[in-house]
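hiii so um. not sure if this is the right channel but i have a protein structure encoded as C-alpha cells and i wanna go backwards to a sequence. like what aa goes where. can anyone help
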C-alpha cells in the first residue's frame, strides 16, 4: 500500500476519473446510474464540489490514477450543512490492494479538518459481505439503515445501506463557527 500517493484531484484527472466511474456503472452495483456519465458531466460534478471546497482526492501509483474519493453535500437544505456523503471508486486493476482504504482514511481526515460532523455512506447493493460495507465497517462507520429493494440493476433488486461516521464530537457539541460548513453558511452558501 505504501507505493500509492493520495493527493487532491485536479481537472487533469477527470478523464481517468470518468473511466473508473464508467466501469463501476457498467459492471458494478455500487452506483445506481445505468449509463455512464460523459466526461463533460463528470467535469461539471467535479467543478461543483471544488467550488464548495469539498474534499476530492485521487490515489495514484507511477503517475496513474487508480481510484478516487470525494465528500459532497448529503442533502441541499442548510440544516444538513455539517453532513457529507462519501463516494469512493477504485479502478478494476487496483481492487484488493488497499487503495479504497487509503483514499477513505484521507477523505475522513479532510472532512474532519473542514469541520464536518457526520459522514454518510449510501451504499448500493449493500449486502453484508460487499466490499464497500466491509471497508466502511473497517473505518469505524456504523450501520444506520437499509432500504430494501430500492434499486433495480443488472436484472436484480438491490438494497441500499446507510452507514454513518461521527466526526468532531458529532451532535454532542455546538457547531464550530470557524468550520467550513459554518463559514459557507454565513456567506450565504448552503
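sure thing!! here u go:
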Amino acid at each position: 500500500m505504501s507505493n500509492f500517493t493520495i493527493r487532491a484531484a485536479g481537472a487533469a484527472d477527470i478523464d481517468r476519473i470518468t473511466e473508473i466511474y464508467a466501469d463501476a456503472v457498467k459492471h458494478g452495483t455500487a452506483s445506481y446510474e445505468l449509463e455512464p456519465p460523459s466526461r463533460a458531466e463528470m467535469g461539471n460534478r467535479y467543478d461543483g464540489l471544488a467550488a464548495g471546497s469539498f474534499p476530492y482526492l485521487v490515489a495514484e501509483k507511477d503517475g496513474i490514477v487508480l481510484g478516487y474519493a470525494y465528500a459532497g453535500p448529503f442533502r441541499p437544505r442548510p440544516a444538513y450543512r455539517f453532513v457529507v456523503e462519501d463516494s469512493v471508486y477504485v479502478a478494476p486493476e487496483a481492487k484488493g490492494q488497499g487503495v479504497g482504504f487509503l483514499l477513505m482514511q484521507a477523505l475522513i481526515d479532510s472532512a474532519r479538518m473542514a469541520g464536518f460532523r457526520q459522514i454518510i455512506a449510501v451504499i448500493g447493493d449493500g449486502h453484508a459481505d460487499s466490499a464497500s460495507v466491509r471497508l466502511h465497517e473497517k473505518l469505524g462507520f456504523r450501520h444506520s439503515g437499509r432500504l430494501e429493494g430500492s434499486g433495480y440493476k443488472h436484472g436484480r433488486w438491490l438494497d441500499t445501506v446507510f452507514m454513518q461516521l461521527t466526526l468532531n464530537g458529532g451532535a454532542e457539541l455546538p457547531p464550530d463557527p470557524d468550520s467550513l460548513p459554518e463559514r459557507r453558511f454565513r456567506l450565504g452558501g448552503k
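oh and The chain has five helices and seven strands.
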